[in-house]
Amino acid sequence: MRIDVLSLFPDFIRQCAQVGVVGRAVERGLLTVEPWNPRDFATDNYRRVDDRPFGGGPGMVMLPEPLSACLAAARAASALPARVIYLSPQGKPLTQAKARELAALPRLVMVCGRYEGLDERFIEKEIDEELSIGDYVLSGGELAAAVVIDAVGRLQAGALNDAESAEQDSFEDGLLDCPHYTRSESLGTEGVPAVLLSGDHAKIARWRRQQSLGRTWLRRPDLLEGRVLDKKDAALLAEFQAEWQAQAKKAENP
Ligand code: 4FV
């Protein structure tokens, strides 16, 4: 997969593509990340990439011309068809399902805004999809682009080795992840659920599934809304809820 990123901070993008699982995916040739700086396509002596907003008000807006010229150069750098994405709070929320969808594409071109954002006419003409990483305001789209590069890069076939496989990921099937425990010099196995020490893999898988369902019910009930659980999951969740309510009652009157 190829990802081109338009950013006034190309070094930051390069850095993101050199670390961890993403860096390894690039080394393995599974992913290419190419930054492009719109300022390199500014034509005036001051290499301006922004100007004051029509209608007045605070802040600056990114000029359409350097962005269009930069995007044209990025497009021309590969024959692979590209989906052009703008990272902004006005975008659709990034989800694991969206990450899987993007990871299956041959190429993304991501545009990182700075200042108040981009001239709307550039967005209307050039952007295929707007994505948001959350309902808060960043000083630039680079961190959001880095999130997409990581979420999509690690889903490239061969990016994760077995131990790291994406199968067990949170949200892999729309549920939160179960708790994890490992060896600890100081804690030993204190507080570790006995089932995890039982070696009974069927029981361990059942416990992990029940924890995923239960924690999703407790922490993100919105993820269960409109979702029909199969009989097995419904029974697991009902058992978890009963235990939870029993503990809550016991806690109320010890
Ligand atoms: C953002 C977000 C975000 C808005 C103005 C960049 C900033 C500045 N991008 N998800 N939340 N972008 O806050 O994606 O140009």
What brief labels describe this structure?
254 residues; alpha/beta; Alpha/beta knot; Trp Operon Repressor, Chain A; 2 domains; five-stranded parallel sheet; two-stranded antiparallel sheet; 7 strands; elongated; binds ligand 4FV
Task: Give a structural overview.
It is built from eight helices and seven strands, in the order βααβββαβαβαβααα. Helix 4 (about 95-105) crosses helix 6 (about 140-155) and helix 7 (about 200-220) crosses helix 8. The protein folds into two domains: about 1-155, Alpha/beta knot (3-Layer(aba) Sandwich), CATH 3.40.1280; about 170-254, Orthogonal Bundle (Trp Operon Repressor, Chain A). It has helices at about 10-15, 20-25, 65-75, 95-105, 120-125, 140-155, 200-220, 230-250; strands at about 1-5, 30-35, 50, 60, 85-95, 105-110, 130. The strands form two sheets. Strands 2-1-6-5-7 form a five-stranded parallel sheet, with helices on both faces. The longest helix has 22 residues, at about 230-250. With about 250 residues, it is α/β, with parallel strands linked by helices. Ligand 4FV binds near residues 89, 113, 114, 115 and 134.
Brief summary:
With 254 residues, the chain is an alpha/beta fold. It has 8 helices and 7 strands, in the order βααβββαβαβαβααα.
Write the layout of secondary structure elements.
Layout: E1 2-6, H1 10-16, H2 20-27, E2 32-36, E3 50-51, E4 61-62, H3 64-76, E5 83-93, H4 96-103, E6 107-112, H5 120-126, E7 129-132, H6 142-153, H7 201-219, H8 231-252
Helix pairs in contact: 4-6, 7-8
The structure holds ligand 4FV.
